[in-house]
Design brief:
89 residues, mainly beta, four-stranded antiparallel beta sheet, two-stranded antiparallel sheet, 1 helix, rod-shaped
Length: 89
């Protein structure tokens, strides 16, 4: 979406915003939030104990989930045109 886009096109292509704020100049700020999650698993391993050569050390697999949130903000003037855009990670 580039500046100058009519707000009806923005809403039709994306969706209604999750939040709508006043911009202080007679327009609005539309806020969209996108959250995704990724899960990564580190494989387990077996290592020889460096002090006791006859024994082994086992490390179990570890699973971690990471959540990422992006916020898209569109400033819309009183005529319904986008005049500013920001994306925050």
């Amino acid at each position: 979406m580039s500046s100058g886009c009519i707000i009806t096109i923005l809403v039709a292509q994306i969706s209604p915003p999750q939040q709508s704020l006043d911009d202080g100049n007679g327009g609005k700020i539309f806020v969209y939030v996108e959250t995704t999650q990724s899960t990564y698993t580190t494989p387990g391993k077996i290592e020889v104990n460096q002090y006791e050569k006859q024994s082994y050390v086992y490390t179990a697999p570890e699973t971690n989930t990471y959540t990422y949130t992006k916020r898209y903000m569109f400033w819309i003037n009183a005529n319904g045109y986008v005049y500013r855009f920001e994306m925050n990670d």
